Amino acid sequence: MATYGTILIPVPLEQAAPVLREVCAAGYATPAGPGFCLVHPDRFLDENDVFALAGPISAAVGAPVLAAFQYDGDRLELEVWRDGVRAHRYDSWPGRDDEDANDTPVGADPAAFLAFAAGPVDGHRMASALADTPIDMADMDVDGEPGYVWAQALHRDVLRALGHPDRVIHRARWDYCHMCRAPQMVANALDRTELIVLGAAEHPF
User: Fold this and answer.
1) Against a cut of 0.90, is the pTM above it?
2) Handedness of CA 99, 46, 61, 153 (dihedral sign)
């Protein structure tokens, strides 16, 4: 499954745009419902991945940001940054790259993510998702292994528990590379005026 990295900011796009233009070397920014926006940086540039940008963005916009990186369908990493400092880190599979690490998710604290709620919070779904315990049968491993089959479904449930609508959840799982390679998908989902091109990125449509 495709890898992606995005940053969710609880600030309207028009308010965040000057900061994003300043700190992001290349990428796109999109609206994410009332009072929120998303950044889709080109993660292949030095110091331009979601975790490198989260600190400077949080300091400059004066609001917490949620950086998400989903790797190959296997692992979801989330970091909350406030005032330029990492305040919380979640890792759904810390043992993926470290045989000595425990496979139990770390940082599974629902309270750490409440600043990113867009509506009523589903506490049960949130706690279950962070614990890598899917509520819906369709997200469970058919071979009986515990946890989500795909990490992007875990990410979906975190955002759904925070009250974000499906169109925003879908957009939050767009990677810069996907947007470059599938301009028609972007054009179908966004009005031209909703997409902000950052730095050296080219307009996808």
Assistant:
1) yes
2) negative
